[in-house]
Amino acid sequence: MKFYEQDIKGVWLIEAEPVTDARGSFRRHFCQKEYEDNGLQSKIVQTNISENPQKHTLRGFHYQVRPFEENKTLTCLQGSLFDVIVDLRSDSDTFLKWISVGLTAGDNLSLYVPAGCANAYLTLEDSTIILYYMSEFFAPESYSGFRYNDPKLSVDWPSEPALISSKDQNYPDLDLRVFNK
Question: How many domains would you assign to the chain?
Fold first, then answer.
């Protein structure tokens, strides 16, 4: 596996190195030792699958706050997506900065999102399926989010969402007072 740190500290693009022969291919998707050797949290307590039948489905921005902050690793199993990560760590040099990463089925890439960052994505194809590894259990009392089109962030989405949950649509804008305590 190859690890490439992104412009937000702690966000990594992980490239699997498949071995291919006449039978097809085989690749390592997760390795505790390789995560730890690259300074990534390797704890996994839960895996989730997000199935998105419709192109331009938007999910997020979501995150969990203390004491249940979570690291997550995302991989696109089918279709493609435009993923956005926002740094919510007030002590970070990239506080409130965002980056985007495209993930496509078959690209052998995973995206590691560290605790303290929010994540959202827009599917770019029908029938997009995403696999998540989570470092913490879902904790409703710590779960939070903010509006995908918050003007403070000015995320440059490739398209307007065609489908978004009412919860995601009605999240408030990001409340900076929460992070400036």
Answer: 1
Each residue of 92-110: pLDDT tens digit? 999 999 999 999 999 999 9
Which range marks the domain in which residue 167 is found? 2-178
Q: Specify the 3-state DSSP secondary structure of 46.
A: strand
d(CA 157, CA 13): 20
CA distance readout (Å), 64 to 13, 33, 67, 96, 137: 21, 26, 8, 16, 10
User: Rounded to whole angstroms, how far apart are CA atoms 69 and 114?
Assistant: 9
Q: How far is CA 104 from CA 78, 99, 116, 129, 148, in A?
A: 7, 17, 25, 10, 21
pLDDT, tens only, 41-79: 999 999 999 999 999 999 999 999 999 999 999 999 999
Q: Residue 134 maps to which CATH number?
A: 2.60.120.10
As annotated, the active-site residues are 62, 132
Task: Name the pairing type of β-strands 57-64 and 163-164.
Answer: parallel
Beta strands in 24-94 (DSSP E): 24-26, 46-52, 57-64, 72-78, 80-87
Cβ atoms 58, 168 nearer than 8 A: yes
